[in-house]
Fold this sequence. Notes:
Elements: E1 2-5, E2 10-14, E3 18-24, E4 30-37, E5 90-93, E6 104-112, E7 131-140, E8 145-154, E9 159-168, E10 174-186, E11 191-197, E12 205-210, E13 214-220, E14 229-237, E15 247-253, E16 258-264, E17 270-276, E18 283-285, E19 290-292, E20 295-301, H1 304-319, E21 333-335, H2 337-340, H3 346-359, E22 363-366, H4 395-404, E23 408-413, E24 417-418, H5 423-427, E25 447-448, H6 454-470, E26 475-478, H7 500-518, E27 523-526, H8 536-539, E28 544-546, H9 553-563, E29 572-573, E30 576-577, H10 584-591, E31 597-599, H11 607-629, E32 631-636, E33 644-650, E34 656-663, E35 673-674, E36 684-687, E37 693-695, H12 696-701, E38 704-705, E39 716-723
Parallel strand pairs: 21-22, 21-31, 22-23, 23-26, 26-27, 27-28, 28-29, 30-31
Antiparallel strand pairs: 1-2, 2-3, 3-4, 5-10, 6-7, 7-8, 8-9, 9-19, 9-20, 10-17, 10-18, 11-12, 11-14, 13-16, 14-15, 15-20, 16-17, 24-25, 32-33, 33-34, 34-39, 35-38, 36-37, 36-39
Helix pairs in contact: 3-4, 6-7, 9-10, 10-11
The structure holds (2R,3S,4R,5S)-2-(hydroxymethyl)piperidine-3,4,5-triol (DGJ).
Amino acid sequence: xxxxxxxxKILKLDTKNxxxxxxxxxxxxxxxxxxxxxxxxxxxxxNIKRHKNASFSPANPHIPHEEFSSxxxxxxxxxxxxxxxxxxxxxxxxxxxxxxxxxRYVSHKIxxxxxxxxxxxxxxxxxDAEADTLEILAEDKVTGxxxxxxxxxxxxxxVITRSVKVTNGGGNALDIERxxxxxxxxxxxxxxxxxxxxxxxxxxSREQRPLAHGIQGIASKxxxxxxxxxxxxxxxRHGADENQGDAYGFNLVYxxxxxxxxxxxxxxxxxVIMGINPTDFSWHLEAGESFQSPEAVxxxxxxxxxxxxxxxxxxxxxxLVRGKYKYEKRPLLINSWEAAYFDFDxxxxxxxxxxxxxxxxxxLVMDDGWFxxxxxxxxxxxxxxxxxxxxEGGLGVLIDRVNALGMKxxxxxxxxxxxxDSELFxxxxxxxxxxxxxxxxxxxxQYVIDMSREDVRDNIWNQMYSVLSKNKVDYLKWDFNxxxxxxxxxxxxxxxxxxxxxxxxxxxxxxxDRLTKAFPDMLIENCSGGGGRFDAGMLYYxxxxxxxxxxxxxxxxxxxxxxxxxxxxxxxxxxxxxxSRTGYETKGNVALWGTFGYELDPTxxxxxxxxxxxxxxxxxxxxxxxxxxxxxxxxVDPYFDPYKAVWSFVAPDKSEALVTYVIMRxxxxxxxxxxxxxxxxxxxxxxxxxxxxxSGALLMNAGINITGKIWRDGESLMLHFTEVKxx
Length: 727
Ligand code: DGJ
């Protein structure tokens, strides 16, 4: 719900439990008056006027000096060079060559529903009653830049989405140097900043630090959202934790270079900005042209980090992921990569499929190595035609044989790449990303192809379409295995060269859009050398993303706990593999917290592991809805406890809970308790294994003792509780 108080000049956005308040001040400055727990009223003007502390802060000459300076007031969308020295959300270089920017309120409108940000991925509504939108139109008078600030407030979820559009309404060309998707000024700095850092095989591990004076933050300039920092950040008030207290979450619906910064200034306030990384970015606007920023999602709750995550999860399950597999059960897959790498042929894959079928697995995925003359990673990316030396008689023969077993079939692509040793490269040596007169770096023996070019995209699309339209492909894994360096496009003129990175991302989105439209029933899984592009932008096109190449169940724990801060279980690709000494039971229990599948040679499993796998397949079906649509509770986070990890999924109606307990390292003599969360304290629940019945209150407050049930490093346990109904 969004309202405007004409007298007070205050705009108020309310979600179920949060409020966001914007004021229109003298001289049409737009100020950010509040973001936090729900307020019934909005008498907030007394909370500004911080100027007394700032004798060196320049001020607007038309407002008495003690009254106002943009350097200390909470600016709704901070501008560069006009007296606010904190980090700027917006900087526009005008025809004179300077980047002084100063936007003021012109008008606003409020309406039901949410604008469609296509071709950018975005959170969408299932019906207009879900949310209201506010558009504030602001203007920089000197340049004629018209800036539209978009806010959508959800009625039943504590979510506000934001984005910004800049239109050149003046007569001269402009260059946008920075345009962040959101800016938020909080009146204190008593928070910890939580971010997700990583690398290949260690993605999205939680990191937490108290805010300090100055600028702190995370960024990527790798051409993708990256393994090293995820475009997610949270502020957790000191004293708040997983279960209580103020938590703000920020996530960018974008897959390219990003920046999140928090600046604590001399008056101990905090400014947060999130959006496209301004490094190597600018956007040229001729008169009348517009630029639309990606969307940022903001969540606020006073029920701690756990509830913040659950809000993100609900939003992404219902309002971001699309297509057939949004709610339909996804096929349980086995992937050939760790089973065979590049060394396979039709017979070997069919053998994998026939063993997998015995376990109840639904789909065989043929990973890297089926095209061109690819037998290792040195060649053929870009040559998207079948290698008939491996797949004799073509892809159709393999698929028919797999289908004849009653299994579906999936395939691997890496559409944004080109090998120097490929037919495509020899035909189009200028199609890879490079800049003139500079040698290009190589990564995994490959270059990145120039997705900003339509002719390049058309070529890749035609190749893909030719394979996918002639064959029954049920699933596609879209990989991306290097970062972008020496970035440039042969088609961009110098004044637009810094548009390249964003145009690359738009090109990738265009190809993904073509794919989802042409093959709406195909399940797409994104991947980037594991989870190097695990972001909300990609989730708009693929309901699941391969979380990490690290499939060791113990090491996976910190990755999955970290990823879960923002992304739901149904999006996290998680497989059981052969590559760790931990037992199959724990491998399965950990992979169940995700999309679940296998990444191993099924012919090599011993008899007892085969039985374990069969049981896991049953568990997958039994707990599918609970894990995919239930509420996650992180009960013991390995970020705090080096010995164990415990989590649970609770059904939305609180009728059922599944708890998983993993011993990472045995701690001699400790009693092992599980205290559940999220149950109904007045309901009674049966432990399905023992038949014992407990109240929700007992399970949550006293907990249950599982000491002795599991002992050793790497052992794990699942407990299933179901509501006992009195009929
Ligand atoms: C990286 C992915 O993460 C793996 O799962 C696999 O698909 C390889 N690429 C194939 O090259």
